[in-house]
Every structure is written in C-alpha cells, then in structure tokens.
Amino acid sequence: MIRTLVVEDDPVAAAAHAEYVGRVRGFEVVAGAGTGAAALRVLARGGVDLVLLDVHLPDTNGLEVLRRMRAAGNPTDVIMVTQARDLAVVRAAIAFGATQYLVKPFTSGAV
C-alpha cells in the first residue's frame, strides 16, 4: 500500500482528498494534518510514502513544508494540491522536488 498523508487546512477539502485517495487501488490515507507543523510531526514519525500538500496553510505554506522535508533528507513523494496558479509557486514546488502539481478544484480522476 502507498501510505498517504493529506495536508489540508479546509476540513471539507481534506475529506474530499482522503476520499479520492481511498478510491485508488493500492493507496490508503494514514494521516491528515491541518497545519505545516502537524505535517512535519507526522513525517518525522515515518511511515508515509506520499504527501498531498496544500500550498496555503494557516501557520506556514506548503512550499516551506516541502523545503523543510528536503532539508531534513526526506525523499517522500509530494503532490502539491492548491488553488495557486502563480508560475513562481509552480516553479518553486518543482525546484523543491514536488512530483506533481494539482490545481483545485480537480476530480478524483486527477488523483
């Protein structure tokens, strides 16, 4: 199973993302986090193979979470999930090693 962490501050969106992941054979949601700090705590414990990471979080932004992951040597795959369409944000996400960039709203098929 691909163990997935959903990082999203909007509970409705987080539930939708978790549902989408649950529909994909071989994937499961093992944790959720509503802040960057919570996401980093989950990642520090290990056991996560994929992160669905929102850019806009209440305590920081997803790019900073991704930067800290990479600085700590964490190679976990990351799919950025956001409404941000700014080219600079997309480039930064790619530079920090994001595997994919999904723009909200999206369908379960995109996941």
Strand proportion = 25-35%
The percent range for helix content is 25-40%
Main β-sheet, in a few words?
5 strands, parallel
Helical stretch tally: 4
Enumerate the strands of the largest sheet in spatial order, edge to edge or round the barrel. 2-1-3-4-5
Query: What is the C-alpha radius of gyration, as a whole number of Å?
Result: 12 Å
What is the string of SSEs from the N terminus onward?
EHEHEHEHE
- How many strand segments? 5
Q: Uncertain segments of ≥5 residues (pLDDT<50)?
A: none
On the 0 to 100 scale, the average pLDDT is: 91
Q: Based on helices, strands and strand pairing, what is the structural class?
A: alpha/beta
Shape summary: globular
Please give a structural write-up.
With 111 residues, this protein is an alpha/beta fold. 37% of the residues lie in helices and 25% in strands. It has a five-stranded parallel sheet with strand order 2-1-3-4-5, with helices on both faces. α4 links the parallel β4 and β5. The longest helix is centred in the N-terminal third of the chain and has 12 residues.
